[in-house]
Amino acid sequence: MLIGDVARRSGVSARMLRHYDSLGLVRPTGRTQAGYREYSSEDIRRIFHIESLRSLGLSLREVGRALDDPDFTPSELVDDLIRRTRERIAAETELLTRLHHIGATEPADWEDVLQIVALLQALGSESAWKRQRAALSSVENVAVPVEALVEATLSETDPNVAGALRWALAQSGDAGLALLAEGLGSATAEVRKRAVQSIAEIPNGGATALLQDALTNSDIVVRRYAALALGIRGVADAVPTLIDMIVDDTNDVDAADALSALASDPALADQIATRLVECLADGTTESSTRRRLTQALADVPGLTASRALADLSHDEDRAVALTATYILKLRAHDNGSFRE
Hints:
Strand order of the largest sheet: 1-2
Strand content: under 5%
């Protein structure tokens, strides 16, 4: 079969066939009486083999080695192709994401594009200082896409940079809430933690609703961060989780502060005191836990808390009794000062 016929039937151009010939990949084994190169059925089969290997991403040099080297081991090359393909996909995905981020800002001119590119590069820098500076300047100078800020926030490991990124996100209002909500469902615990911390710093109703939903999250860390934020916002649903934190000795001081903020509402003060007393009455509660619960009563106003403290001042556990007695003295002093 002549080269033109091979080209038509195989889909490989005559120019490429000549290139294969010059490289020694596939050379026509026959000649016509007129001296034209003629491909045999075996030559054509080799052409299809070459095209099949090229479709996997092999270079022509690698194709030649695969077909002609008897010691060639395909598994190593395939593994290498997998690695190279993953790297290429990652690079293309990063480029696509960056283009989406730039497009989202609707740049007016190339100067805007260059500023955004520089800022995105800084957010991805290996230097924590550059990332922090980019986070702060994202609010002051350039309108960085909220998607980029969320992405950077959920992946940031440096606490100072993370704080700057959360602050920058908070300035964007509720624009990033949907993406942060997705972060709450991440398979990675650290991402879920960063998501709830970021939501906690956004002071609007949408964030509060997300935090309330987070109280039922399967991740206990997410539930605890949500409860701390909701306590400061005066959301009563956080009370059970906050009390559990005191019992479990997990951020118990912060949990007690959040309960104190909730107890400033007279309608909640007695409810909180009652729950704390119920935990104190549990016979299985350890001495150290009872002391923490007693301390939590200190900033809970109202008759229920005062009566509970009076009872606890005679507790069999001397440490609990002393703690309750001390708190009662402070409350009496504060009430006396107020009357004066």
